[in-house]
Write a structure and sequence with these properties.
Helices cover about 40% and strands about 15% of the residues. The protein is an alpha/beta fold. It has one domain: 3-Layer(aba) Sandwich (Rossmann fold). Strand 2, helix 2 and strand 3 form a beta-alpha-beta unit. The termini are far apart.
Length: about 250
């Protein structure tokens, strides 16, 4: 393949939605650098699958909650880009890495709050900031929110609040980075069948049926429902979409 392919950095690309995003991005002709927290073998399997499709790919370890590690990460990324991709820059950043913790508002501990804050808001804020020097002008950023920022499902007060913060940040990033031609959008998935949050949507038949019953299209979401939209936002077809919250939920809780 040509060395002029556009390159996307996606956090949390070893499994679930992130894996599907990575595969869809490759399908759109992008080369992919994905990060993983602990699942190295899974990440390398995704890399191999992307390479089989004809795109370049690589995986790097990253704890998105550890802001102090970002300097080392970007130094490592710069070496990787030069050696593997013959490039000094990335074209797109997808801030996907995340965890799901279900805890009632009254019982949410400070420890859980801080963990969610560091991964879903602080980490995203400062990782994106650190990526700016190597993010190409005319490129793009895709942040990930949740339908839970629009409708309230008890048990997700802290998680959804962090996502609400990212939705606001997305607008500010779009306003402040627009002079560089960088588009910033946010995708808000509805309930999806993955291992996220212990796999409750996928594995609990009662939960699955309830979600399907409150969704206009009559089923719960699948990873490919989300990955294809994220990939679309990283193509020229989406060049005039900016500062938008795009909910991809099949019409949940309308």
């Amino acid at each position: 393949m040509s060395t002029t392919n556009k390159i996307v950095l996606i956090t949390g690309g070893s499994r679930g939605l992130g894996k599907n995003m990575a595969l869809n991005l490759a399908k759109e002709g992008l080369d992919v650098v994905l990060t993983y927290h602990s699942k190295k073998e899974e990440a390398l399997a995704v890399v191999a699958e992307i390479e089989q499709s004809g795109q370049k790919a690589a995986a790097l370890q990253l704890n998105t909650a550890d802001v102090k590690s970002f300097g080392d990460f970007f130094r490592e990324l710069s070496i990787l880009l030069k050696n593997t991709f013959k490039s000094g820059t990335i074209d797109f950043l997808v801030n996907n890495a995340g965890i799901g913790i279900n805890a009632a508002f009254a019982e949410t501990s400070e420890e859980v709050f801080d963990e969610l804050l560091n991964i879903h808001f602080k980490g995203v804020f400062f990782l994106t900031q650190a990526a700016l020097p190597i993010l190409s002008d005319g490129g793009g950023i895709v942040n990930i929110s949740t339908g839970l920022a629009r409708f309230a499902t008890p048990g997700y007060a802290a998680y959804a609040s962090m996502k609400g913060a990212i939705e606001t940040l997305t607008k500010y990033q779009a306003a402040e980075l627009g002079s560089r031609g960088i588009r910033v959008n946010i995708v808000a998935p509805g309930a999806i069948e993955t291992d996220f949050g212990g796999g409750v949507v996928r594995d609990n038949d009662q939960v699955n049926k309830h979600i399907a019953s409150v969704t206009a299209l009559g089923r719960v979401g699948r990873p490919d429902d989300i990955g294809s939209v994220v990939a679309f936002l990283c193509t020229d077809q989406a060049k005039w979409i900016n500062a938008q919250r795009i909910e991809v939920s099949g019409g949940m809780n309308l």
